[in-house]
Amino acid sequence: MKKKELRIGLIGCGFMGRTHSNAYNRVKNFFPDLEYQPKLQAVCSRNEEKVKSFADQWGYASYETDWKTLISRDDIDAVDICTPNNMHAEIAIAAAKAGKMVLCEKPIARNLEEAQLMVDEIAKANVRNTVWYNYRRLPAVTLAKKIVDSGKLGKIFHYRSNFLQDWTINENLPQGGRAFWRMDAEAAGSGVTGDLLAHCIDTAMWLNGGIMDVSAMTETFVKQRVHEDTGKLQDVKIDDACIFHCHFENGSLGLFESSRYARGHKALFTLEINGEKGSLKWDLHDLNRLEYFDNSDESIIRGWRSIHVTDGDQPYMDKWWVPGLSIGYEHSFVHQAADFLKSLESNDVCAPTFKDALETQKVCESVIDSAVDKEWKNTNVEWT
Ligand SMILES: NC(=O)c1ccc[n+]([C@@H]2O[C@H](COP(=O)([O-])OP(=O)(O)OC[C@H]3O[C@@H](n4cnc5c(N)ncnc54)[C@H](O)[C@@H]3O)[C@@H](O)[C@H]2O)c1
C-alpha cells in the first residue's frame, strides 16, 4: 500500500527537538503498518549553522531560521513545537490559523490565560492537535491504566507522585538565556510546577480522574541569580520546589512533591495508587517494570509482583524486540508519534489534546495560587 505523507515542520532543535526527530525516524521502521508516515520536511531554529547541521543529522529536507516562514509554507502539514514555554502560544495559534495540525510540548503554556486562548483558537481552526505528555505511553504506565480501568484495584483511596531532580542546587547557576530558560519565570511560566509536576498531574488525572481542589506550598531556595540577558543579579521568580495535596473527583486523596533540590535524584518520577483490592507503583528509573499488589492472591504467597512489561501482549511491546528485552525513555515519543499518525487514519483524537492539557494547566495554576494565598483552591477541572 502506498503510504500517505504527513509533512512535519519542527520548531526548536534542543532536547525535545532530538526526541521528536528520533521518534519520526523510528516510527517508520517499527510501525510500518500505519497508513500515514511522517516526512521530515523542515526544521527551524534561530542559529543557521546549528539548524543546518541538525537538519543534516536527523534527515530534514530543509531548514528555516524564522518560525513564521516555516508556518507559511504550503508543503508543511503539521507544526511540532519544541521551543521554550514562552513561545508555545504564539506559534500554536499562528499554526492553527494557517490550518496546520499542531503538536506541542508540555506545558502548553506559561499560565492558564495563554492556555485557554490556545484551546479557543485551536477549536476555532478545528485542526488536529496533541500535547507531548509522553509518559502515558511508556508500556508500564499504559499497563497501569489498563489495570485501573479493569477495576482490579477496586475503589481508589490514595494517589501519590513525585518528580525529583537536583540540578539547580548550585547558587552560582544563572537564570535565563538559552541554557537556563527554565529558571526564568518570564520564559518558563513557573518552576517545577509547570516543568515537572505537570507530567505527574497529567498522568494522575489520566489514571485516576479529575483533581478537584489543591492545597500547596512552594519554595524558592536561591532568591537571586544573575540573569543571562542583563548580566544583573535579579530575583528568582520560579518555584524550586513544590508540595501539594488534593482531592480527586472519585473521592481519593492525592499527594504530590517535586523539587530540583533533591540531592542524588536526577529524574525520579514515581507514582503509586492504593485501592481497596490492590495497589500499583512505578518508577521512571526502572521504567519497564510495574509493581502490582493483588489482595485476592492466596495469603501465603501474597506480595508485590514485579511485572517486567516487555511481552508482546503488553502495550506497544509487539512492535519492538523479543519478550524480556527492555526499551527506554525515547520510545514513549515513538509511541506518541505512532498514535498521532494512527489518529489520522481512524479520524479520532490523539490524547492528550490541547483541551486535556488545559485541564492540567488549571491544576498547575491552582497549585501556584494556593501556595501564594496559603489557602485551598478549587481547580474547576472538567475531566471526562
Ligand atoms: N515531554 C517531556 O518529557 C519534556 C522534556 C523536556 C522538555 N520538555 C518541553 O519541551 C520544550 C523545549 O524544551 P527543551 O528541553 O527541548 O529545551 P531546549 O532549550 O533544549 O531547546 C529549545 C530549542 O528551542 C529553540 N528556540 C528558542 N526560541 C526559538 C525561536 N524563537 N525560534 C526557533 N527556535 C527557538 C532553541 O534554539 C532550542 O533549540 C519545553 O516546553 C519543555 O517544557 C518536555
Automatic annotation (TrEMBL):
Residues 6-131 form the Gfo/Idh/MocA-like oxidoreductase N-terminal domain. InterPro entries: Gfo/Idh/MocA-like_OxRdtase_N, Gfo/Idh/MocA_oxidrdct_glycsds, GFO_IDH_MocA-like_dom, NAD(P)-bd_dom_sf. Residues 143-280 form the GFO/IDH/MocA-like oxidoreductase domain. The keyword Oxidoreductase applies. The keyword Oxidoreductase applies. It comes from the Bacteria. GO terms for molecular function: nucleotide binding; oxidoreductase activity. Pfam families: GFO_IDH_MocA, GFO_IDH_MocA_C3. This is Putative dehydrogenase. Keywords: Oxidoreductase. It comes from Albibacterium bauzanense.
